[in-house]
Amino acid sequence: MPVVFEAGAVAPAHAKIEEAYTVFVHLLDEEGHIVAQHDGWPVDGMRPTFTWEQGEELLDVHRFTLPRDLPSERATLVVGLYHSEMLTRQTFDHGHETIHLADVTFDFD
Q1: pLDDT in 10s for each residue of the chain, 109 residues
Q2: Terminal CA-to-CA distance of the chain, rounded, Å?
Q3: What pLDDT does 26 receive?
Q4: How far apart are the C-alpha atoms of 64 and 18, rounded to whole Å?
Q5: What number of other Cβ atoms are within 10 A of residue 74's Cβ?
Q6: Class of CATH domain 2-105
Q7: Which of 5, 42, 51, 87 is the most buried (most CB within 10 A)?
């Protein structure tokens, strides 16, 4: 079952991003394990983070397919950034490495 996720990313208001970061979108099961994911440069590689202007809004689409053996009907969708060369995650203003986007419930009937 394909799942299409669409999110508008907003560059941090306090500073311009000077380096390349990769966006990751994770679907986590109820125990916090990754059950589906997609990593990629913003806007299919057309708008690397170092080209973002302060406060600019971008539509960044990430697609992934749910596994057939999804362990639960409930999941959490999170997004984050990691440095494209050093692979270190960006910490956001709230002190976490991910931003909670949604709690998701799947109905397989």
Answers
A1: 555 555 555 555 556 788 999 999 999 999 999 999 999 998 899 999 999 888 777 888 888 888 777 777 889 999 999 999 999 999 888 899 999 988 988 776 6
A2: 13
A3: 93
A4: 28
A5: 13
A6: mainly beta
A7: 42
Amino acid at 53: E
Spatial neighbors of 14 by CB under 8 A, at least 6 apart, are: none
- Residue the block writes with tokens 């984050």: 80
Q: Which residue has the tokens 């690397």?
A: 48
Find the length of the chain. Answer: 109
Q: Where are the domains of the chain?
A: 2-105
The label of the residue with tokens 């009907």 reads 73
- Kind of pairing between the strands at 57-65 and 74-83: unpaired
d(CA 26, CA 32): 10
Q: Radius of gyration (Cα) for the chain, nearest Å?
A: 15
**What dihedral do alpha carbons 96, 97, 100, 104 form, nearest 10°?**
-130
